[in-house]
Structure formats: structure tokens, C-alpha cells
């Protein structure tokens, strides 16, 4: 079975930084971060493929950086210049496909339990 475990969430003030991590039990070609705020649909935040190609949600581009380790089983999301609008439950997700788009989110079939990120003004 595929297992994903997120960590690193927390509460910070606007302008602060957090680094999220996701440990995968096996290698999967596409891995990414998604988030869902109360009352809103889940959205793709950032993804990375096996070649290192990255895609970002427009609202986080330039502030967030996605990366993975040499074994490609640990995913990270460095979040800088955080804004209150970034407050959400953040999920690590994966799919074993040749294409790694930000959406639709239903393409990603493996999901972690989520880690809460709260940004205060």
C-alpha cells in the first residue's frame, strides 16, 4: 500500500515561513501539495515530477518552493512570505502517471492525512 505522512504545519504570523515535509512509503512519479480552506474546494498548490519539473498555483508562485530528496520519496514545501489567505489544511498527494498537472485534484489518488497551516494577520 502507498502511505503518505505530512509534517511541519503550524501557526505563524503573516510574512513568516514554514517548511512542510511528506514521507512516502514508495516512489511515485508525481507528488504534490494541495490545500483546502473551510468552505472552499481543494486546490493544487505545487507539484514536481521525476525530472524535477515544477508547477505552482499562481497565488503562491515566487513564495513557495517544492522539492524532493534524492530517493524521490520525501517531498518538501518551503513556504515564505505567508499570507492569511494561505491558511488551510495542506495535503501531500501523489499519482503514478507520466503527466503531473496541478489539477483536477481528482487525478491524484494517494493522499496523506493533512497538516494544518494557519497564518494570522
Describe the structure.
The protein has 121 residues and is mostly beta strands. Helix content is 0%, strand content 48%. It contains no helices and 11 strands. The chain has strands spanning 4-7, 10-13, 18-24, 30-36, 43-48, 54-56, 64-68, 74-79, 88-95, 110-111, 115-120. The strands form 2 sheets. Strands 2, 4, 5, 6, 9, 10 and 11 form a 7-stranded mixed beta sheet that branches. It has a 4-stranded antiparallel beta sheet with strand order 1-3-8-7, with no helix packed on it. The radius of gyration is 13 Å and the shape is globular. The mean pLDDT is 97.
Give the percentage of residues in beta strands.
over 45%
Write the H/E string, N to C: EEEEEEEEEEE
Task: Extract low-pLDDT stretches.
Answer: none
Q: How many H/I helical runs? A: 0
Give the end-to-end Cα distance, rounded to a whole number of Å: 40 Å
Task: Characterize the overall form.
Answer: globular
What Rg is obtained from the alpha carbons, in whole angstroms? 13 Å
- The secondary-structure class comes to mainly beta
Proportion of residues in helical segments: under 10%
How many E-type strands? 11
* Average predicted local confidence, pLDDT: 97
For the sheet with most strands, the description reads:
7 strands, mixed
Amino acid at each position: 500500500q502507498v502511505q503518505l505522512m505530512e509534517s511541519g504545519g503550524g501557526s505563524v504570523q503573516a510574512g513568516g515561513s514554514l517548511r512542510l515535509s511528506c514521507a512516502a512509503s514508495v516512489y511515485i512519479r508525481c507528488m504534490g501539495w494541495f490545500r483546502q480552506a473551510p468552505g472552499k474546494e481543494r486546490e493544487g498548490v505545487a507539484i514536481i515530477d521525476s525530472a524535477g519539473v515544477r508547477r505552482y498555483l499562481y497565488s503562491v508562485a515566487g513564495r513557495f518552493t517544492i522539492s524532493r530528496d534524492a530517493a524521490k520519496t520525501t517531498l518538501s514545501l518551503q513556504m515564505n512570505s505567508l499570507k492569511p489567505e494561505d491558511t488551510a489544511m495542506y495535503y501531500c498527494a501523489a499519482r503514478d502517471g507520466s503527466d503531473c498537472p496541478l489539477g483536477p485534484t481528482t487525478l491524484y489518488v494517494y493522499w496523506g492525512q493533512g497538516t494544518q497551516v494557519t497564518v494570522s494577520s
